[in-house]
Amino acid sequence: MFEKLPVWLIRAFSRPRLSRYVVAAQGDPRTAVRLYWWNIEACGALYGPLHCLELALRNALHDRLSEAYGRPDWWETAPLDHHGQRLVTDARRKCERRGTAPTPDAVVAELSFGFWVSLLSRRYDRGLWVPVLHKAFPLLDQPRKQLHDGLSSLVLLRNRIMHHEPVHHRDLAADHAKIYRMLGYLSPELVVEAKVMDRFPDVLAVRAAALAGTRPTRF
Question: What's the half-sphere exposure (Cβ side, CA atoms, 13 Å) at 23?
Answer without folding.
Answer: 9
